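User: Sequence recovery, please. Input:
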């Protein structure tokens, strides 16, 4: 056991949101790494930027925060990623520019070494929209079999498919999505309405399923418990978009798995035309009969406890009420 902080990787898109007020650093994996770093973890971003002014600004921003940038690759031929964001009736609309530097993240010895020694990795859907980034992210997650593997679903435009979602869920140990994304993903994966969360926990052998519910807060599901977060209260930001509402990285760093037992088995990415769901296994618990949320008298239900987890020592998971 070591007292050094967990090594947490934000893997995938690193970009700038082009907001009406000006460029803002963004990208879900980058946001996860930055917030985990603010909580005292050893957090790094693994991505790719262009050799341009925005790329240098991104590096400078992370360095100013005290973060290591050695795992951010540079590209001579592609620009740093950008997302044009416009607000219509208060709701953001995204134009995610394609063929940018983070679409070209390359697998190399540096990333291989990082994958083998990290304690947690956060990866998403958007970062896997194109090759070679898709293969690089999948190779990293497969190699990081000792780590917490958080699949942070971020459905944008048409940059996702049933096959990609199914493969990423198989490779993950924790899956996080919002209510709108769950409504899209459930039918794509052939899940039964009102039981989809329990089915995902079972079929993909997940440790946790994290459902963000907007102003109602976050719900954490495990095989035998549900913890509901407190409603969110914060001052309105008229020009904020989703990048300004990044889920606290404490939740992303909540579990550091032991390296023995079933956790030592590497995740597998199916090839070819695999079925959307893994083969059925003997159940380790019964699904609720009609609803994905237990009744309040259910022993698994803990009302009033916020779903917040704090950075942990290696090899253990500790979940704290706020």
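Assistant: Recovered sequence (322 residues):
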């Amino acid at each position: 056991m070591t007292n050094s902080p967990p090594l947490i990787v934000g893997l995938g898109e690193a970009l700038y949101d082009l907001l009406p007020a000006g460029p803002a650093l963004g990208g879900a994996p980058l946001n996860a790494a930055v917030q985990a770093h603010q909580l005292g973890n050893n957090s790094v971003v693994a991505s790719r930027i262009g050799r341009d002014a925005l790329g240098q600004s991104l590096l400078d921003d992370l360095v100013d925060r005290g973060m290591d940038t050695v795992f951010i690759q540079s590209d001579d031929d592609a620009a740093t990623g950008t997302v044009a964001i416009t607000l219509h009736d208060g709701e953001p609309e995204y134009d995610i520019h394609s063929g940018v530097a983070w679409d070209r993240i390359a697998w190399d010895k540096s990333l291989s070494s990082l994958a083998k020694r990290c304690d947690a990795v956060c990866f998403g859907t958007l970062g896997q929209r194109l090759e070679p980034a898709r293969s690089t992210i999948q190779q990293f997650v497969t190699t990081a079999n000792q780590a917490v593997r958080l699949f942070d679903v971020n459905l944008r435009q048409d940059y996702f498919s049933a096959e990609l979602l199914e493969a990423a869920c198989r490779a993950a140990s924790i899956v996080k999505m919002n209510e709108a994304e769950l409504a899209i993903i459930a039918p794509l994966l052939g899940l039964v309405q009102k039981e989809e969360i329990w089915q995902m926990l079972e079929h993909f052998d997940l440790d946790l399923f994290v459902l963000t519910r907007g102003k109602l807060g976050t719900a954490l599901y495990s095989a035998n418990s549900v913890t509901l977060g407190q409603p969110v209260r914060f001052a309105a930001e008229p020009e904020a978009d989703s990048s300004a509402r990044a889920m606290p990285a404490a939740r992303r760093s909540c579990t550091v798995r032991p390296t023995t037992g079933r956790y030592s088995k590497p995740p597998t990415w199916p090839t070819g035309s695999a079925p959307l769901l893994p083969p059925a296994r003997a159940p380790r618990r019964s699904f609720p009969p009609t609803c994905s949320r237990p009744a309040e008298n259910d022993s698994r239900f803990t009302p009033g406890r916020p779903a917040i987890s704090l950075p942990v020592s290696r090899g253990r998971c500790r979940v704290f009420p706020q």
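Confidence is low (pLDDT under 50) at residues 241-266, 268-322.
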